[in-house]
Design brief:
Helices cover 5% and strands 44% of the residues. With 196 residues, the chain is mainly β.
């Protein structure tokens, strides 16, 4: 009698994992998703070797995506470190990376003798360099300069010597400059016999 034999072969597929975490230094946040072979983004997982992976970071409404760090595993993944776009690579091994989300930072510098305060609070009695505070993205911060001889702000959007309003869509630095009143000091001192 005729007979048939069927042979079944199992294909061994090597799977590697993609683990994407989030990091923040000042209260920022967001989500990280994976897209494989051009498909829709979703939770990251394990995929066959050779899969084209795109890891996408999306900040929440008050944060900025500041870049990737800690990338290890697949070839090209290390090139994503510090980049601020999607991290694209071909899966060749278990891969990990971290998406960093931070709220914008306002940096205030004071040149001369004077001080700067912010509303809402954060920058308090700044009298020197690198006074910093973190605020939500989109927050409107009002800076007020106090002291004699204030000559203005470094931002073009803040002309004159009044208050300075800063809308934080990104980390921003502002310098408040106070000029010395040396001329009037010299005139007043001449009557006292003080020379310079």
């Amino acid at each position: 009698a005729n007979s048939s034999i069927t042979a079944n072969f199992a294909v061994n597929v090597t799977l590697f994992s993609v683990t994407a975490s989030t990091g923040t230094g000042n209260g920022g946040g967001g989500i990280v998703q994976c897209s494989v072979n051009g498909g829709a983004a979703g939770a990251c997982g394990s995929y066959p070797v050779g899969t084209a992976v795109s890891v996408v970071a999306t900040p929440n409404g008050v944060s900025l995506f500041s870049g990737w760090s800690g990338g290890s595993g697949s070839s090209l993944n290390a090139n994503c470190n510090s980049a601020t776009g999607p991290c694209n690579f071909t899966l060749t091994g278990n891969t990990t990376l971290t998406a960093n989300f931070n709220r914008p930072v306002l940096t205030v510098n004071v040149a001369g003798t004077g001080s700067v305060n912010s509303s809402p609070a954060g920058i308090t009695n700044c009298t020197g360099l690198n006074c910093q505070a973190s605020f939500d993205k989109g927050a409107v911060i009002t800076l007020t300069a106090s002291g004699t001889g204030f000559s203005g702000w470094s931002l073009g959007s803040c002309p004159g010597t009044g208050t300075c309003q800063v809308t934080l869509t990104a980390s921003t630095a502002v310098t408040a400059t106070f000029g010395s009143d040396r001329k009037s000091t010299r005139l007043n001192s001449s009557h006292l016999g003080i020379s310079y």
